Amino acid sequence: MNKTVLITGASQGIGKETALLFAQKGYDVVLAARNSEPLNAVANEIKNLGRQSLAIPTDISDIEQVKALVESAIATYGNIDVLINNAGICMTAPMVNTTLDDWHKIIDINIWGYIHLIHTLLPHLLDRKSGTIVNVGSIGGKMPLPNMTAYCTSKYAIAGLTETLRLELEPKGIRVCAVHPSATDSDFLERAIFRGDSEDETQKQRQQMHTFLKSPLASKPQDVAKEIWNIVQHPKMESIVGSGIFPATMYRFVPGLTDWLFKRATG
């Protein structure tokens, strides 16, 4: 029986590149994302690689849709060996400009989406006494980032979820890992949220992010996909990808200095 991977946020960016890489490595792939058209396009690419794929449009913030996704995946392939929680959205905004609707959207997708998949798939993994869960976090889950309170809250939660779940599940044969990219040059801006004090400030935030994503400092989707593959093949607690390694390490050892530098940089 071929191994099977289930990937959320699989229609573009990190999710798409991860799906193609796992297919190249011999996995059958279950693809989940909200929009069916790009999802089906990825499925066709996988079929051209000679592997099977199952594309299921899914809103991971909706538990009933997640249940249907997992049931269809298991019914089709018989087993799920790897779960890659990847779907998420980013938000740049000071707390004062972050609405409660914004908070719910970030939490529903970035936290509840991951919980929904793990909670639904876990009985299957426990029955098999094997499997790997990879939670794609962010450098924003390893250190605070200016004007990204809601986003960092969600990603710190994922770091805590991953680290605690590892203690619970590894004795039962299930490996739990995290991959933390820096901002990644993909279709990231299409779904990112920006809230400034004015329209000019909002556009400035967006332009700053666009500039960073086109710089050498941004992570590349292919590099993140490779690290996800590596951590599945050679499990370890976590991996930080890209330019975020230095500031995250610096924050770990000298958080006060790192905070001071960020405050200076952001005025």
Description:
- With 267 residues, this protein is α/β, with parallel strands linked by helices.
- The chain has one domain: 3-Layer(aba) Sandwich (Rossmann fold).
- It has nine helices and nine strands.
- The strands form two sheets. The chain has a seven-stranded parallel beta sheet with strand order 3-2-1-4-6-7-9, sandwiched between helices.
- The protein is globular and about 55 Å long.
- The model has no long low-confidence stretch (mean pLDDT 90).
Low-confidence stretches: none
> What is the tally of beta strands?
9
Oligomer: single chain
Q: What are the secondary-structure elements, in order, as H or E? A: EHEHEHEEHEHEEHHEHH
How many angstroms separate the termini?
Answer: 57 Å
Strand content: 15-25%
Q: What is the average per-residue confidence, as pLDDT, rounded to a whole number?
A: 90
Largest sheet data:
7 strands, parallel
Find the CATH topology: Rossmann fold
- Percent of residues in helices comes to 40-55%
Shape, per Cα inertia axes: globular
Strand order of the largest sheet: 3-2-1-4-6-7-9
Q: What's the CATH H-level superfamily name?
A: NAD(P)-binding Rossmann-like Domain
Number of discrete helical segments? 9
Structural class call reads: alpha/beta
Which architecture does the CATH hierarchy give at level 2?
Answer: 3-Layer(aba) Sandwich
**CATH level 1 class label:** Alpha Beta
